[in-house]
Amino acid sequence: MKKVIPFFLLLIIMVSSCNEKKSKMSNNLLNESSPYLLQHAYNPVNWNPWNNKYLEQAKQEDKLVVISIGYSSCHWCHVMEEESFEDSLVASIMNEKYISIKVDREERPDVDQVYMNALQLMTGSGGWPLNIVALPDGRPIWGGTYFPKDQWINALTQISDIYNKEPERFIKYAETLEKGIKALDIVSTSADFKDFKSVDIKNYIESLKNKIDPINGGFSGAPKFMMPNNIHFLLRHAYQNNDNDALKLVNNTLEKMAYGGVYDQIGGGFARYSTDDKWHIPHFEKMLYDNAQLISLYSDAYLISKDELYKEIVYETINFVLKKLTDSNGGFYSSIDADSKANDGEEKEGAYYIWNEDELKSLLKEEFKYFADYYNVNRYGYWEDENYVLIKNKSDLDFIKSNGLSKEEFDKKKKQWKKILINARDKRDMPDIDDKILTSWNGLMINAFVDAYRVFKDDKFLNAASSCAEFIIKNMTKSDGGLYHTHKDGKSTVNGYLEDYGSIIQAFLNLYENTLDEKWLNISNDLMQYSFENFYNSETNMFFFTSKLDDKLISRTVEFRDNVIPSSNSIMANNLFKLSHYYDNSDYLDTSHSMVKNIIDQIEVYPSGFSNWLNLILNFKNNFYEVAIVGEKAIEKINELNNNYLPNKIVIGSLEENSLPLLKNRYIEGETLIYVCVKKACKMPVNTVKEALELMN
């Protein structure tokens, strides 16, 4: 006779079984807030978050440490998780022989920097996922990026065996590597440097120009990153020095990026990079920091060229950010994943963004022939597996002419195409969004929205910038006046890094210049003072990446080489230069000057790694204008002034009497006066922007 189990008892048993299974499967990442760490919370690997107590555990158990670093929108991070970290055999080896630590590189850039430097010293290259094997004290001994399962198993097994038999072999190597890591952060002042007049910018400019692909734009080769700070610097140089060759290279780059598949032709916004040299097939993840910097770049390019393509890119990218990456509290999310579910239910890179011909014909019907011509649903736009990534290779004007359309007819068609495809795409599985809010990247996006406002005078842009800035002040400021680095699920955590202070000061100064709300100027100055107290090294006149309040790592890094994002030290040096003018602060100016002296020899070796420093050198080398505007129409005058591309100026102003050095005793009731000054020496005040521009030229 069968025993009958009552339903409620069966339910209890089932729930208990599920809870037990869930408990067994989860690891120490379960209570983390980072989306990347949570992705790994149910791996069979006994992952731990970065914390000194796990290094102490490794010492006590005399186990090597696996430090695996990535981020939530990283495609190859997902691949390695699926192949290795979800595999029971791999997990058994890692759990038996190692203490395993998972790190979100966006949440802990300090940890990422140390081990990325180590990997580059060991192998000459880097990338993510970043996988390091370290001694129990955290000093690295071996590393790489993505590994197939068999390679990963073999490497871990061999390294563990060698360590058990000959630990001194790894200890000696770790000591040598540690010296190399620390050497990367040594900055020495150029003994030959005299003044900025002696700095020959032309050599650096030619070096940058020679690296640009004259056909497809961008820096030659593949994969091809957009490197907006390099292109922005070249744009400034080209415009101010009438370098038509450089300007052609810049405009060709901006056009080809906007035409490419690296730009989302339907929904707006840029992917992280192109896998080919014609900007066609992107690595489909979308990062906040790329889109922020590109909004600023295309805005300034429009101001110079008045090219409607650039305006379209700015507006579409901003709309993408507002629609997909903006939190209800005003902050901006970090990224959108490259992968999503395809029609067959499998996770695939780019599945959300690609199209096949039959689907497009079904959606667009008689419009398909025009659409296919415009977006190259042909051999030129073909990717793989019968799929296309939309790409342009002709201007709107050329397309209109070749198809016998009027501009009005074309604009209507294009708007309708996008509406149809956006509606169709919205029915697909959306890639995951990493919804943590990073202070540093939000600073870049505030800056972008202000730049777009400065150029296009759209209040929506200024409102978004102001909303995010208020969010930062309310949610990301610590009780001691410093900043938190990350915000997730209503909580702000992780002590801020130099990149947070640099980007927020830069953004708030930009807000001040366009609103004259002195609050933003004062907060910027307060944050700079805090940075001196907690990050500054008086022996080198540079800033450490981490605060003196943070736990010590193998090396306290000094980030000074510009990359996809300008380095935190170069941003701070530019901020100090501006603040020195606002507050007539010679210490700020001297520090900025000393910081440039520190890196001047490095520029000779690798100019493309120092574009943001070169921007500052131009400010030191040539006239830099302090434009003081005082009177009730000050904002109107600023908006008119901003119709011109003027990268070598700051704006300071007030609607009434003000005690700031450049404004003191300059208010005259009933008038709005413009003072144009260089190094505090001011011309006679003028009433019109036209007159002010003449003084600046």
Description of the structure:
With 697 residues, the protein is α+β, with helices and mostly antiparallel strands. 51% of the residues lie in helices and 12% in strands. The chain is built from 26 helices and 24 strands. Helix 7 crosses helix 8 (167-183). Mean pLDDT is 94; it is low at 1-23.
Termini separation? 101 Å
- Computed structural class: alpha+beta
Low-pLDDT segments = 1-23
Instruction: Report the mean per-residue pLDDT as an integer.
Output: 94
- Work out the number of β strands: 24
The fraction of residues in strands falls at 5-15%
Report the C-alpha radius of gyration, rounded.
27 Å
**Count of DSSP-assigned helices:** 26
Strand order of the largest sheet: 1-3-2-4-5
The largest β sheet comes out as: 5 strands, mixed
Give the overall shape: globular
Helix content bin:
40-55%
What's the topology here?
Layout: H1 7-25, H2 35-39, E1 47-49, H3 52-61, E2 64-70, H4 75-85, H5 88-97, E3 98-104, H6 109-123, E4 130-134, E5 140-144, H7 149-165, H8 167-183, H9 201-210, E6 224-225, H10 228-240, H11 244-259, E7 273-274, E8 282-283, E9 286-287, H12 288-305, H13 308-324, E10 335-336, E11 339-341, E12 347-349, E13 355-356, H14 357-364, H15 368-375, E14 387-388, H16 396-402, H17 407-425, E15 433-434, E16 437-438, H18 439-456, H19 459-475, E17 484-488, E18 491-495, H20 498-515, H21 518-535, E19 536-537, E20 542-543, H22 568-583, H23 586-605, H24 611-621, E21 625-630, H25 634-641, E22 649-654, E23 673-678, E24 681-682, H26 689-696
